[in-house]
Amino acid sequence: MTASVGATRHNGEVLDSAPYRTADLYRPGVLADLSPARPAPVPVVPAVPGQTGHLARVVARSSDRVSWLRARSRGITATDVAKLSSPRSIRAAAYDKLHGTGFSGNVFTQHGRSREPEIAAWVAATHGIEPSDLLFHAERDRRHLATPDGLVARSGGKLELAEIKTTNKPFRSIPRPYLRQIWWQQYVLGAERTLFVWEQHDGFVPLRDEPECRWVDRDDAEIAKLVALAADLIELLRQATSAGAPATVSVTEAGAASGPAASTTPTGMRVSATA
Q: For the chain, how many structural domains are there in total?
């Protein structure tokens, strides 16, 4: 399975289908405060006592895959938000969140995972952004999660991130799902900008000696839209798993079938699914 952005094929997204990814994770008392999502959330207790700033909000490391997947399944990640663009996409994302997709990777994800350390080393050497495998929660809502590919705190404490992709076609512009991932990560971390880095390949052989890159500035207007969409997703999950309700979400719209076959395929996929 590969995803498409226009005519571009990209490495697929690694999703978790472990048995703990069930509706029980969304029942009240398991996910932090699944009350109606519209009221402004209150500040959360730091996840790492004794730390300050973004380091106080570390939830897990992707190197501890089981803990990382478990933590991601209990919140809304950049990978989830990348799919959100319409009411139908919210229902599809909720279905995937509750039931999984069954997709565990392909040759494109394998290539992306193998290339990411090399690309990340180039980013560190040329831009001073170090690789990161940390999963963070947002300052004001522990349900909002992100794992940027790279992170650095500049002078004055300003954060800059890196997001790494591989592709077998050139990018004319940054695909919208990738931008949603980037903006969500900036929101969760409180970052000012992100270096979007991509490496084009032909038959899994890089075409250039160095990756290409472009800075993406923080966009608070777009972030506000994503936070609202995430609130809608959380509310749908809450309704689907409320006491006595079956843990199911229909993605039916205008006569479309419901269930896995109707779940929309994300148009933007991560190199290593660490969003």
A: 1
For residue 168, give the CATH number of its domain.
3.90.320.10
pLDDT in tens, 206-245: 989 999 999 999 999 999 999 999 999 999 999 988 755 5
pLDDT (tens digit per residue) in 72-88: 988 999 999 999 999 99
SS3 at position 41: coil
Residue 262 corresponds to which amino acid? A
Residue 145 has pLDDT above 70, yes or no: yes
Query: Which residue range(s) make up the domain with 233?
Result: 56-242
Residue 63 belongs to some domain of the structure: yes
Tell me how far apart the alpha carbons of residues 81 and 231 are, in angstroms, rounded to a whole number: 11
DSSP 3-state assignment of 126? helix
Nearest-5° Cα angle at 218, 190 to 133: 50
d(CA 47, CA 45): 6
Is residue 46 domain-resident?
Answer: no
Give a yes or no: residue 20 inside a domain.
Answer: no
The β-bridge relationship of strands 150-153 and 3-5 is unpaired
Cβ-count burial 120-135 (b if 16+ within 10 Å, e if not): bebbeeebebebbbbb
